[in-house]
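Take a specimen:
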Amino acid sequence: TIPSTVMAILLDRIGPYLSSHLLPGIPFDPYIRLSVWTAYFTTFGLLPLILLQVEERPKAYVLLTSAATLLGVALITGLVVVAKRDVTGYLLGGFLASAIMAVPFTWVILRRCRRVWQWDQMKSMLAYSLPLVPHLLASWALTVADRFILERHVPLGEVGVYMVAAQLGAVLAVISGALHSAWSPNLFRRHAEEGERAKPDLARMVTYVFVLLCWVALALSVLAPQIVTILTAGPFHGARHLLPWIAAGLLLNGAYQIPGNFLFLTPRTIFVPIVTVGAGAVSIALNLALVPRYGTAGAVGSYVVGNGVMLLLAWLLARRLYPFPYEYGRIARALLAGLALYAAAAAVPAPPGWADAALRGGLWLLFPVLLGALGFYTPSEKQRLARGARSLLTCFRKKAPC
């Protein structure tokens, strides 16, 4: 808390000077100042949520994260829609939500922690966590560097379209974060308790996580025209061309978190920043090279490649530190099914309106069917699916709750 408080105060004081050079088109007050203090109060939730994950208390975790999300949505909606505060209302709503949620998060910490100074433990904690500082900075750079570069080379309207696509794609990031938040504590516990014996079950869980991420990414890609048209105003409809690329980058990012978690199983976290710093450097270099010439298309391409490099580096390092029996064949079938359905949606012409939406929605729903045609399912999975289908059919016939 003390370092984040000092950093927030420092940024609040020197922020006007920095923003005038880095973001000359955006006033520091109130926009960037609200963002700084929103980020500060958000840090209050980091440790409590990690503790709840470690304790494997999903109900409390979901309750707090859901409360934070709903509170933010309610305040932002009230300030933007009702009070007509536009962008200021959006930022102010996020700030108020994070400040209010800091109270229950602090209460969770005070109930579970007591202040004890143990230098031996502190040394091991610092050895484990200090390498993560450049990792977090590089992760941040990988996420936001394209915004800074775009702001200098393309019209502000195009930057807005890009930001809308990124915001819509954030649905996949939220789902990916929730899946990994639930999976990583299970990974650490089973690794500690079962060792090598846990790997086959964990490999199957990894496959299921990847399949679900593929299906969500496919929804964002195939239904991009409908999603963008319904949720945004006319000037932002160009985001439908960028959303599939954002979804592809987020899918690679979600896949990266799987071998990324394996790197955290070892005490040598020095390898973690190698992944993110390398990927961040590649992404920034590509943005600098491509954005001035290709605009937002160069930015989304750099985003996809940067996340792909991050996944590749994490996989290469993790296979040396924690060899893992990935189900490569099944993962490849899931990826092939998603690419085939996206290609079909892009290639098959359809009349505008509901007919196009129905066709695209139907192609998206074909994903689990195509998995079966590609031989994805194991015999036991086929049996469970058949039992589930029979049970569902019986419920419909009897018109009874399932």
Remarks:
- The chain has a mean pLDDT of 82.
- The radius of gyration is 23 Å.
